[in-house]
Amino acid sequence: MRRSGILMHISSLPGDYGIGKMGKEAYNFVDFLQKSGVSVWQILPISPTSYGDSPYQSFSVHAGNPYFIDFETLEAEGLLEKSEYTSVNWGNNPVRVDYEKIYYNVFPVLCKAYERFDKESAEYKAFLEEKSDWIYDYALFMALKDAHGGRPWQEWEKPLASFEKKAVAAAREEYAEDIGFYCVMQYWFYTQWLKLKSYCHEKGISIVGDIPIYVAYDSVDVWTSPELFCLDEEKVPTDVAGCPPDFFSATGQLWGNPLYDWDYHKKTGFKWWIKRLGSAAELYDTVRIDHFRGFESYYAIPYGNPTAEIGEWRKGPDTELFKAAEKALGRMSIIAEDLGFITPEVRTMLDACGYPGMKVLQFAFDSDSACGDLPHNYETNHCVVYTGTHDNMTLNGWKDSLGARAVSFAKRYLRVKDRNDLPEAVIRAAWSSTGELAVAQIQDFLSESADARMNIPATPSGNWQYRVKKGVFTPKLAKKIYKLSELFYRLLLVEEAAVEETVEAAVEEVV
């Protein structure tokens, strides 16, 4: 089945409250996707963001981002007064997220709603029971961060930093109210998100979500389970994650995440990873796993190094993890982010897993006609073709950055005469390719400039801020995208989606 998708994170939705929300603008965007004949909405990780505002550095692999909780929904439930959130200064630029203002203003507003929330409701108690294996530790972690001025857990007093039972038990009692606040925020997040996901399904839209391979050092996951990671006796990483110099950075990318102790994970039957993938499967229809090649072998950088130029490759769990996950969870829909340094061993792992990999057309014109990202070289249609990812420039920024040789090659390949025609031609090339799913960033359908880029890898600040303007999801744009998908047989009508779900349900019942 040939499909098309648009990549836009929740944070990039328009609205009046500083950052995208799971409210009316999200539902309007789903309606726009349906009218456009687009059947896939791809987003970035929706977990809470930490220092640097990156969705790939989170305090928890299970929790949702409170920034996305919709105030208007809470008002409709009688938990907020309109003036309590409309009178707040959420930032002066409607197309950029001001994370500092969000950080200081969101929680006081949500705290007002928390005071009015019925903590004894049956639905809330059922939610806590369902999420009990992670939510209380997460809420305690966040409460303690607040109590310590936001400092990382490594800087807390030693009994707490070491997660000693007596200290933790005392903290649960002392910060019970704060823990309750963080638990209720997760209830609101999951309730609103799963309702939005259900609406997507009604409209024939599936959600491709994203999970990073690694977790943040300053996270509840490392704090409560240090045995899962390569840490010394003081819980300091021995080596950290990243990738060597490449297309994005001449000095490599120093992510700084602690590495996994894969021997320990194997002994547990990959229990932690199975639980993590299970959470992702609840939130998303398809899970894109970032840096998938790291499961075959991963790049280890000595802790304390200033760049990623010095490091070594080490063997990962390979297909063993995914066999265990499939046995426990069933066959998941997964996209393997297989960009970067791909060896024959990595390709063997990808083939064995059977997950579709990625092709990125912005990478296709820097070499010659043998480049594997060019559509005529795709060996299979079992792949996802991107015009660019969240780490790439907008197509307008890309076409302006190309050298003379690449421009000449791209113009000849895409059959256009002018450099300015390249962005639209690249989208057309993705949609006309044999790839089973074609995806473009929303910025490129809106012809945004280079300033609308979501992320510049290896830069510590100024990223993840892009938002669309109100009113850009017009019938005219929907019609244009619809015609493109219709031309290249990528439409998925709601009626077809309903038939497919009925057939799948019938098959499952028979099995």
Please give a structural write-up.
By secondary structure, the chain is an alpha/beta fold. It contains 20 helices and twelve strands. The protein has helices spanning 24-35, 71-76, 82-86, 99-116, 122-130, 135-147, 158-161, 165-174, 176-202, 220-224, 262-267, 271-283, 320-329, 344-353, 395-401, 404-414, 422-432, 442-445, 475-487, 494-510, and strands at 3-7, 40-42, 206-211, 239-243, 253-258, 286-289, 297-302, 312-315, 334-336, 357-360, 383-386, 437-441. It has an eight-stranded parallel β-sheet. Strands 5-4-7-8 form a four-stranded antiparallel β-sheet, with no helix packed on it. β1, α1 and β2 (40-42) form a beta-alpha-beta unit. α15 (395-401) packs across α17. The radius of gyration is 23 Å and the shape is globular.
Which sheet architecture does the biggest sheet show?
Answer: 8 strands, parallel
The chain-level mean pLDDT equals: 94
The residue ranges in which pLDDT falls below 50 over 5 or more consecutive positions are 494-500, 505-511
What is the CA–CA distance across the termini? 23 Å
Overall structural class, as computed from helix and strand content, comes to: alpha/beta
Oligomer: single chain
Radius of gyration, Cα only, in angstroms?
23 Å
Shape: globular
Q: Approximately how much beta-strand content do the residues carry? A: 5-15%
Strand order, sheet with most strands: 9-6-3-2-1-12-11-10
What helical percentage do the residues reach?
40-55%
Number of helices: 20
* Beta strands, count: 12
